[in-house]
Amino acid sequence: MKRIYLFFAVCLLPIFLIGCTQQKTTQAEDSISAGLLVTESGLGDDSFSDSAFRGLEQARDELGITFDYREPFDQNYEEQMKELIQQEHDVIIGLGYNALPTVESLASEFPEQAFVLIDAVSEKENVTSITFKEDEGSYLIGLIAGMKTKSGVVGFIGGEEIPVVQRFEEGFKQGVEKANPDAEVLVTYANTFDDDQKGADITKEMVDQGADYVFPAAGFTGVGALKEAEVQNIYAFGVDSDQFFVAEESVVSSMLKNVNVALYDVMEQLTGDQALSGEHITLGVEQNGVGLAPIRLINLTEEQQKTIDQAQNQ
Predict the structure, then answer these.
(1) Quick one: signal sequence residues (predicted)?
(2) Is residue 257 helix, strand or coil?
């Protein structure tokens, strides 16, 4: 009798496994999916692309979504994004101002496809644009730099001179001026987000001019600036993500640009059966779109901390 039971159990096991496999496939097919085109710096930038990727990873782990991604190292945005569209994702996400022309073109070519554009604004009805109040977060960084500089000279390093980076610059300069009207702010644009050596070279030049704090908003170029700040024994601020671990003896804080939070919210909306509206969403301190990473390496006085807290609350 035991042999008969064993025979039936063995016979039924493949059927059970097939049933489980079919169920798993159906669940995967039913899940919301996203296609992500990161910046031309690719993953591993310790900044913008990595933040976006983390947001989708969190959505995968907590919401059950699936996603794929492409890295346009050769600036072949359209080719890479078309590959994602052909996979029939529920939403296609383009990162950065440089993705705007491709998103606009393909949004017209594929009017039924939903797109999300980060850091630029499209008027296309099937494109939801998400931008950030970089000036709010950079203002906080500027306050710290203005309050703590000993030389009275600080530096801002931009990637490409485009509106989003100019907002970083403006906020930083306003914060420095508020805290220390006599301080000088050096400004240099690298005209690239992908050259860490250029970031290092600009940092050296600023140190030669007396800068003791630098704030790069320049992608992978900025990573070079942070590492060189450590070599030059000055302080620096990270951007987009908490970049303390890029240069642990130099990075005081980072201006968090929570692309991860924005994309998690997008996927949460889609998994809740809420369609994207094609609107323009702007996220600041109040919406947890921007903020400060923990302040390390330096000590703020009680009055200086109060200044930072008041600025955040305003």
Answers:
(1) 1-23
(2) strand
**Do 166 and 112 reside in the same domain of the chain?**
no
Mean pLDDT to the nearest integer, 143-159: 98
153 neighbors 184 (Cβ within 8 angstroms)? yes
- Rounded to whole angstroms, what are the CA distances from 124 to 6, 83, 112? 63, 21, 12
Q: Please tell me the least confidently modeled range out of 8-17, 41-50, 215-224, 265-274.
A: 8-17
| Residue whose tokens read 């630029």 | 120
Nearest-angstrom CA–CA distance, 143 and 181: 11
β pairing state of 213-217 and 251-257: unpaired
Burial 219-232 (b: 16+ CB within 10 A, else e): bbbbbbbbbbbbeb
Give pLDDT, residue 151: 98
Percent of the chain with pLDDT over 90: 82
Residue 6 lies in a domain: no
Judge whether 1 lies within some domain. no
Q: Domain residues for 151?
A: 134-256+290-313
pTM listed for this prediction: 0.83
